[in-house]
Amino acid sequence: MTKATRPYDLVRDLKRLRTRSHHIARALESHGYPAPRLMTPGFDTLVRIILGQQVSTASAKSMWLRLTAACNDDVSPECIVKQGHDGLRSLGFSNQKARYVLGLAEAALAGELDFGALQRAPDDRVRATLTAHKGIGQWTADIYLMFGLGRGDVWPAADIGLQAGIQILHGLVKRPSAEETSLIADAWRPYRSSAAVLLWHYYGANRGAKKVIAAKKPRAR
Prior knowledge:
By secondary structure, the protein is an all-alpha fold. It has 13 helices and no strands. It has helices spanning 10-18, 22-31, 43-51, 57-70, 77-90, 95-109, 115-120, 123-131, 138-148, 160-170, 178-185, 192-205, 207-215. The chain is globular.
């Protein structure tokens, strides 16, 4: 198996990273090892990730629970098509997300989206396949690679939580850009997925620290 498709092992990978990075070591010492967040690969996991786009965790969870209830715990392409646009809207989907999820269901039923083939494909091919469908951007494809397929070296650089986590952990005045976080994360290859999970965990526990860092920014003279 190539580096592009190797699975991640959170504890093993973070133990290796802590010997390379004192920042990673400090985050582990203060907050311990996070949960791996792995999910079962397939259509339902991709739908759940799409529901989490640009909404709060609570809102995404609420929509997901209503959807699973409507589908009798089997969120399949057939169930999505049966719900239809109006049915999905009644479950809390926005117009846009209802269209996206219906489009994915239709693609899966037509054989245009083969989740079994994605499990065997290298990372770049998974990204290209997924982002060819409306509603799936780079972030969604990367999250599916990480949590749906368990790929070990994925870095969703545009994720604000990762950027803020690095800002707090590194004591930066300004939140780093996607390009800047990518440069920092280069030193964590081929374990960037595990580094990302740790940073989300660290950021979630230290959100208040961001205000403290911002307060230290010198005033303009």
